[in-house]
Amino acid sequence: MRNFLLILFVAVLLGAAGFAAVPAKADPLDDARAAGQIGERPDGYVAVVNPAAPADIKALVDSINRQRRDAYQQIAQQKGVPIEQIGALTAEKIFSENLRPGMYYMDATGAWKQK
After folding, report:
1. Count of structural domains within the chain
2. pLDDT, tens digit (0-9, with 9 covering 90-100), for 88-110
3. What's this model's pTM, rounded to 2 decimal places?
4. Which of 3, 17, 20, 86 is most enclosed, with most CB atoms within 10 A?
């Protein structure tokens, strides 16, 4: 039950922080994921799929990860749990609800896979 409440809290907070599954306008992160430039990691952060990605994609990754880290830290402090737990729970949610076929995610071994 505690994990369910934690997942629910993460979902609500991330939705409020701009991580909603259905954006009202063009979403650079979603566009980059759809183009195969950015993938989701199992720790709740994003990474470039190809290390030779353009500078604007790398800057987007840095920006998204800063926003996520701030949100995860806030949740972790409120719930008294490790930030890593929040990131992992968020990754599970993103993998199951936000990634569409063809988008990349990193598995537990560090290999990129397509959904």
Report:
1. 1
2. 999 999 999 999 999 999 999 99
3. 0.78
4. 86
